Amino acid sequence: MPARTGPSTVKVPAGASAIRIPRQRRSGRRSDPFVVVVPERPSLTRLALGATADLVWRHRGALAPLGIAVGVFLVATLLHALAWWSGLALVPAAVGPLVWLALVQRRRPAAARAVCWRVAFALLATAAGAWAALAAGFGPLAGPLEVWWLLTFVAAQTTWLIARHSN
Fold this sequence. Notes:
Layout: E1 16-21, E2 34-39, H1 44-58, H2 64-82, H3 86-89, H4 91-107, H5 112-138, H6 145-166
Helix pairs in contact: 2-5, 2-6, 4-5, 5-6
Protein name: Integral membrane protein
Keywords: Membrane, Transmembrane, Transmembrane helix
């Protein structure tokens, strides 16, 4: 008579395969066998989500402006919902890049190419700061602010991709 008692088969859900790992012989200690249940085929939705996640993960460095733009959009929405007057506190964020440009150009003059990049960065940051201040005050979807957000995002993404590949 065998030493095992109980059922010799394990119930497996429909559409799955069971892989049985044989019991390990240990000195005097009994352990139950391990059963790993593996689905046979992933669904088409799972494959599509996996491919999309893999693509986003591989190109995550290039998508940094997208994450920042969506984050600023959500923060502006939250600030507008909680305190509309917070837009007044964000006005220095719109003016700050222009002040930075004036200070840097005065203290460290640069060649024409560097000046172009500095001006582009200052204008882009000023547009983003002004949008954030107005969106926090009036709502991110008020009037032309949604188009302004989209154009600023496209400009930031384009500048980011050009700057990453030009160095």
